[in-house]
User: Which sequence fits this backbone?
């Protein structure tokens, strides 16, 4: 079973985010980069599937130089090897460009045995679009099994097999079934990601990282980056900060003070 | 006037409020055409949906009743829409920012070579090309964007605009689709709806009362429900609560739960982690009850009570009931 897991490097969720005044893109210099939290669950799930069915896990990350940190973290969790798509031309890429690049990178794997499963997080904490997995499935012409809170694989001898997931929906869940190869995205309910062990961290240093440029992937730089973006920010403004609220300490009268406030706002 | 396609969200022909909101916004951009996809198990969806769609300005209703479309996840619906985009060159396609809505939009964007904007909170029709407004970074920044390629595809959050009536004909037009092999990849073999009570739906409710780990146990969650009922509110929960199994997952508010933006959000026993805030910080008025004066939720509140929720919440329920009587 060959599994590819897509991980993204994002600004730390706790750090304050702002847009760059020059080109309206996220000012990444202003924040500490970390691995997108949801993608840790994707890595964990990929490793668990490998532990049950054998094979190899490859991490695929598109991002700037600093994203090496995220690649390394995946390797120290136990991923076998990495593809890092790194190119100046990628700055400002939107979801359409990201999915294009990821599908091109997956295409290059055909020579080395291809893949049976692509695992992604269901959302990146910075873009928060939840669209890359569906776009990737569309581009690859593969079944899409997204928002999985449970994944099970029924591997056939000699490759192939089926994948079944429970997909979280607004009012419950759906059971989705497809044959492999397929694209799966996971939610954080699915597992508890492991911490890299000391041994894992040491081993990661020796694992292969294949760095690819846009040219290596045969992707035109006009189709990605800021120039290739298919929607553009016209303007932005910072919302006025919330006014500091009233805070009272309950001395038996907390509820009536709160009720008074709610009444003053006409909620009761 | 150019058509604007609106994908209808419905339960067996019972049209969801968000669709009426989309039709209202679509009228700013052109003439709304509703796209209604029915399943085999509920024939006659058009007859049930017609009145609501007509009242809110749908000039046309494209109807597909092919059971194959709803048996597979998102891809077939994207194919239906792609076919309609090809056929009618609409000014835009509007979908709800639900899980399915966003994924259908994503696939449609790839299929039609178009740009996509998700989670819009408003759409304006400046100069014929739509400008979508989004609130990013937890509502701290408002961004207005335009789609520069192909047909603008925009997903809009529920509650972005009040539905307004503007009667139109809602003329039926049947659509026949031939699904590709690739669209039939991911089969939906079962749908499980977890219990649904009498309370308002979380993502559309005007008031939401949420409980967190501070509630203490599944049994004690009834104090949150009682306050919600006194206010006519929906019940929400933090992930700590849904993970512990104290309350069902579909009530989770936050990054991986629902995004809510009610008039009033009440957080009881919730610390206010960034992932929770991501789902509620654009609420108009926020109040919190928490025994820890340092809890980050207090940074967001209009009114906060530092105290034990097991004292404050039941007392507040009594006050509300008394004042409402
Ligand atoms: C990828 C990812 C996605 C996530 N998505 C979400 C999400 O969608 N939604 C979400 O909510 N979380 C999400 N989380 C989890 C989030 O980080 C927090 O762990 C969670 O929100 C904490 O829930 P809580 O506030 O109920 O619990 P805690 O943080 O434990 O806070 C409990 C609070 O209750 C107070 N308290 C205790 N007893 C009482 C009492 N008797 N009276 C009054 N106050 C009391 C305490 O002072 C404390 O502030 C996500 C995490 C990750 C990693
Ligand atoms: N630059 C990237 N490199 C690798 N994977 C990515 C990248 N961007 C997004 N992804 C994957 O797509 C998922 C959903 O992201 P998004 O659609 O941006 O919310 C993430 O959780 C990642 O698994």
Assistant:
């Amino acid at each position: 079973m060959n599994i590819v897991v897509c991980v993204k490097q994002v600004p730390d969720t706790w750090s304050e985010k702002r847009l760059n005044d020059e080109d309206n893109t996220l000012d990444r210099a202003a924040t500490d980069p970390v691995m997108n939290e949801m993608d840790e669950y994707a890595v964990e799930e990929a490793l668990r599937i490998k532990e049950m069915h054998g094979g190899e896990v490859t991490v695929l990350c598109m991002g700037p130089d600093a994203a090496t940190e995220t690649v390394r973290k995946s390797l120290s969790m136990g991923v076998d090897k990495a593809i890092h798509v790194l190119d100046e031309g990628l700055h400002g890429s939107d979801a359409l460009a990201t999915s294009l690049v990821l599908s091109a990178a997956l295409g290059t794997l055909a020579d080395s045995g291809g893949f049976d499963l692509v695992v992604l997080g269901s959302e990146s904490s910075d873009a928060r679009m939840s669209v890359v997995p569906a776009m990737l499935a569309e581009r690859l012409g593969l079944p899409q099994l997204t928002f999985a809170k449970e994944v099970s694989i029924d591997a056939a001898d000699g490759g192939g097999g089926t994948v079944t997931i429970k997909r979280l929906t607004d009012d419950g869940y759906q059971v989705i079934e497809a044959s492999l190869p397929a694209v799966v995205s996971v939610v954080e309910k699915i597992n508890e990601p492991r911490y890299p062990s000391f041994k894992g961290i040491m081993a990661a240093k020796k694992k292969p990282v294949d760095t690819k440029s846009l040219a290596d992937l045969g992707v035109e730089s006009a189709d990605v980056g800021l120039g290739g973006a298919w929607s553009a920010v016209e303007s932005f403004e910072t919302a006025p900060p919330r006014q500091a609220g009233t805070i009272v300490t309950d001395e038996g009268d907390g509820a009536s003070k709160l009720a008074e406030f709610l009444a003053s706002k006409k909620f009761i | 006037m150019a058509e604007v396609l609106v994908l209808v969200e419905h339960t067996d022909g019972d049209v969801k409020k968000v669709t009426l909101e989309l039709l209202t916004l679509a009228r700013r951009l052109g003439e709304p055409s509703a796209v209604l996809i029915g399943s085999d198990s509920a024939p006659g969806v058009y007859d049930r949906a017609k009145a609501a769609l007509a009242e809110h300005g749908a000039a046309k209703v494209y109807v597909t009743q092919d059971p194959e479309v709803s048996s597979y996840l998102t891809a077939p619906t994207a194919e239906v829409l792609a076919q309609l985009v090809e056929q009618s060159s609409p000014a835009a396609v509007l979908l709800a920012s639900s899980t399915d809505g966003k994924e259908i939009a994503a696939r449609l964007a790839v299929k039609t070579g178009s740009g996509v904007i998700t989670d819009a909170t408003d759409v304006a029709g400046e100069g014929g090309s739509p400008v979508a407004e989004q609130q990013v970074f937890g509502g701290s920044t408002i961004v207005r964007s335009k789609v520069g390629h192909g047909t603008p595809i925009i997903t809009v959050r529920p509650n972005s605009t009040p539905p307004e009536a503007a009667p139109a004909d809602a003329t039926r037009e049947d659509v026949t689709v031939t699904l590709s092999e690739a669209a039939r990849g991911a089969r939906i073999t079962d749908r499980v709806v977890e219990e649904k009570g009498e309370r308002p739906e979380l993502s559309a409710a005007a008031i939401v009362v949420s409980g967190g780990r501070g509630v203490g146990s599944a049994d004690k969650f009834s104090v949150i429900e009682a306050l919600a009922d006194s206010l006519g509110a929906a019940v929400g929960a933090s992930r700590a609560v849904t993970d512990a199994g104290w309350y069902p997952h579909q009530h989770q508010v936050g990054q991986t739960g629902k995004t809510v933006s009610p008039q009033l959000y009440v957080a009881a026993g919730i610390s206010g982690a960034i992932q929770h805030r991501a789902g509620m910080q654009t609420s108009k008025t926020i109040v919190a009850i928490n025994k820890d004066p340092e809890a980050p939720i207090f940074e967001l509140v209009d009114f906060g009570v530092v105290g034990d929720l097991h004292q404050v919440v039941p007392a507040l329920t009594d006050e509300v009931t008394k004042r409402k009587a």
